[in-house]
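Regression test attached.
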Amino acid sequence: MSMEEQENRPRVVIADDDPDIRRLVEMTVTNAGCDVTVASDGEEALARVRDSVPDLVILDVLMPRMDGWEVARALKSDPATREVPVMFLTSRGQEHDVLEGFDSGAVDYMVKPFSPRELQVRVRSVLAKRQ
Amino acid sequence: MSLDLVALELVLSSLGIALGSLVSFMMTMRMYREWRAAVHVQVRESMTGALGKILDTDRSFSMQDRSVLVDGEQVYVVPKPRGPVGDAVREFLVDHLSFISGDLRGRLVTILESAGYVAAAMRQLRSPLGENRLKACMILGGMHSRIAIPALIEIFNDDPDAMVRITAAEALGVVGAEPAVAHLLQALRDPTRFQQVRVAEVLARMGMMAVPALTAAVDDDDVRMSALALDILADIGWMSDFDPAIRALTHASPEVRARAAEALGRAGAIEATEAVMKAAADPAWFVRVRVMKALEALGAPRERSQRARYLGTLEQGLHDGVWWVRQHAAEALVKVGEDGRRLLARAMIEAPDSPARRASVSALQHHLIASAAKTAKTAIAR
């Protein structure tokens, strides 16, 4: 891969406190052709997004320090990160959880256990809309 | 030296030896635990490296004995399924199986099958120790392998240990074993041998694949079986073939009629609304309670004449002799909207001291409080 191709890869921040799931999502999104940065809690995710303003953020809901909904709301209330699309990937799959996720500004919501193939398609779809 | 002193010396030296042995045993155990943890970390690291390639949707995947091939290239050799290394491999794959769904999950299952992990757990099902058989059932459930289904069904039917039988049932539920549905339903007939509630939970968790057998069981001659089948269908929230449940609204047993009404309400079977309305005249009060709840869940029909009959049924419920029926009728009327609340207001005015008035007041009060709370919440959020 050339330097230019490397630089043009979409940048994605992934936040999940479970190291195995984080790694699995990282591999899946990397395989979808993205440049991935990971965070293990909500606060770290917020810092990573503010540092790099990525093309997509994938958040778990239940995380230490700040939960995914709080992170999404903080991103949406900051003019610098307002336009960054947020996707939830969480084990919370009740109707009210999904509604809360979209209410906090998410563009997509996936429930664990997740299909890596489906995640890739959704990531590509969100990124395509952004472009 | 006196005899007492010799005895004391002997006791002390024995104690010293015992203490020394204990310390050395504890140190060995600690070293073993540390080694095991190190093996775990090592295995997880090596497998994580290979996993990215294994789960790459753009690449082909196959197994050759214990070799994992991606695009024909060997990316990992799975260790044999024994000892701490085998345990670590199995745990890693089973953990990841619980995170992912879809067709890529099949790749991890294939690894467990081809490398002999499923066969090893199935051998443990024949262990004379119940504890080992129970553990094997749990492991096989986590592996999601369909190869194990016949063996798990056999254990579920024949194991002498009740805990092992129910663990096998749970494993079958996790694997999603359609052939197990008939056996699980059969087990519901024998409450002395099986923990009925847990078997019912397994069937509910199996979801849609259990629905055809459960809808057939609604027509069963055994009243208990019909009632249980309706309960499980309600938990699943099935979407079609409501006819057996509609027929059950006129069953000879009030238990079955009550459960049929509840199940239809929870399933949101709007095509059953007319039949549920007819059941509002049921002689058993607990059936009428469930009918009112079901009507609330089903909601008011849009078609004018059917809507009028729906409101009429609820109004009739508002004057029922049992307060619980009245209460649910009033709550359902609140939910209908303006015309439902108008009926409640009329009941308040026209029957000032009747039980219907009390139910109407209570339902309207709750509605007003809930509306006020919602308005306040919206105002605060702004």
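Expected vs. actual: identical. The longest strand of chain A covers residues 11-15.
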